[in-house]
Amino acid sequence: MKPAVPCLHRLGSSFRRGARVLLLSSALLATGLNGAAAQSVADEGEGVATQQLALPKDLTLFGKVDPNVRKATAIVNGRIITGTDVDQRLALIITANGGKVSAEEKDRLRVQVLRNLIDETLQIQEAAANDIKIGADEVNQSYERVAANFRQSPAQFEEFLRKQGSAPASIKRQIEGELAWSRLLRRNIQPFVNVSEDEVKSVVDRLNQAKGSDEFRIGEIYLSATPENQQQITANARNIIDQIKQGGSFAAYARQFSEASTAAVGGDLGWVRPAQLPNELAVAAADMQVGQIAGPIAVPGGVSVIYVMDKRKVLTADPRDALLSLKQLAVNFPAGTTEQQAGQKAAAFAAAVKEIKGCGQANDMGAKMGADVVDNDNVKIRDLPPQLQDILLNLQVGQTTPPFGSIKEGVRVLIVCGRDEGGAAAAPNYEQIMAQMEEERVNKRARIYLRDLRRDAVIDYN
User: Fold this and answer.
1) The pLDDT value given to residue 69
2) With contact defined as beta carbons under 8 Å apart, do 441 and 110 qualify?
3) Could you give phi then psi for residue 289, rounded to 5 degrees?
4) Which of 29, 57, 173, 340 has a Cα at 20 to 30 A from 235?
5) φ and ψ at residue 137, rounded to 5 degrees
6) For 319-420, CATH number?
């Protein structure tokens, strides 16, 4: 697929040339000049420019320059990565951070994006060399799932991406790289990774001994480093942390920058106990609370940034695992509503909600208030925003939350219609523990595999 930017450049050039012709024609008509006079003006202007630049009268071009052709940023084993490729992938990261990225940070991210694209290209090439090719249908299916996550159709998502300065081709290329690399690892590495029964049994024993201790759901961004570039990679990790603390998406940064196999799922390691983590990460995680980020942490082969997504007790019942049946009442604000008007409407809504006596009256009261009423069953408290978790933990059946929302999305309340208390978290079974241990070992070998691909690659930078 040809890059979109050169096409835009051609359109822009044509428009500018047309505009100059139109302006010149209008000026000539306004002054009443005829064709001969107009030619005289043009000749005079051309002579002035020639004199100013000391140009030869008989000018010959040696070579051909096409302003619509963009130079490659890098050529990886013959595969071109253009500036457009970098710009479009960078736009995805900026979008994930709400567009709040400084010029200095953009320059740093641009360098990292190029590295990622080089790795991605190497992974696709190595998969192809092993007769692994990802079909367009498979890529398109994954792309449709990404669009659905944004609650958009593929066509709507394509328009959204273009408005952000990116393109579907950029996401589809990343999907292709992830699928190809995953399939390659399953074929060339996973069959040769072994985990013994004794190793799994040892983990099970430690889990039982750890009952009641803290368990974390951890996100990780792993950046490989050598002694030569350790300082630079550490600085990159610090910049990533700064961006996340300013509101950036941890999952988005993990997906783009992490070199661990979990990058495809936003860096999510799942539920782990400190003892299951490398010692360096375990020490950091032990004192962290939900929502905290730590790093850069030096680990074998590089540095890691970790994020505590959630926390619970091992093999112990947690109230936040309770399943709720909820009714949601929502009132939207008309376009152009001011903060004052929204506040007044929210206050009236809150007063009306207080009159609701349980879920049995919710539909009738919703109709009187002009509110939309939606039933939601099997909602786990843990999956809700932290502010709502704390409120719903203390509500009885029939009680409502305080109104919440925004001017853009309207105001709403939740009514508790039922509650099924969660039991103790089930211990991972033998197969799950073995799968996790195998994945960790595959991940380590994958890093070595990619490192060797980089060493053998022919990369030409421009």
Assistant:
1) 41
2) no
3) -110, 165
4) 173
5) -65, -40
6) 3.10.50.40
Domain limits of the chain? 72-190, 213-314, 319-420
Where do the DSSP E strands lie in 36-171? Answer: 72-76, 79-82
72-190: CATH class: mainly alpha
CA distance 180 to 182: 6
Residue 312, amino acid: R
Nearest of 377, 380, 372, 437 to residue 410 by alpha carbon: 372
Determine whether 61 is exposed, middle or buried from the number of CB atoms within 10 Å of its CB (0-12, 13-18, 19+): exposed
3-state secondary structure of 401: coil
Q: Do domains 72-190 and 319-420 have the same CATH topology?
A: no
In sequence order, the 6+-apart residues with CB closer than 8 A to the CB of 442 are 185, 189, 190, 193, 261
- For residue 428, give both structure tokens: 């991972």
Q: Is the separation of the CB atoms in 393 and 381 below 8 Å?
A: yes
pLDDT in tens, 39-71: 333 344 444 455 545 566 555 555 444 444 444
Quickly tell me which residue has 């070199």 as its tokens: 259
Q: Supply the pTM of this predicted model.
A: 0.55
Distance CA 31, CA 39 (A): 14
Give residues with Cβ within 8 angstroms of 100, minimum separation 6: 246, 247, 248
Tokens of 235: 């600085």
Tracing tokens 């001969």 back to the chain, one arrives at 36
| Parallel/antiparallel/unpaired status of strands 323-331 and 410-420 | antiparallel
Which residues on neighbouring strands pair with residue 323, listed in sequence order? 380, 420
For residues 221 and 30, what is the distance between their CA atoms, to the nearest angstrom? 65
Which parts of the chain register pLDDT below 70?
1-72, 97, 210, 212, 315-318, 421-427
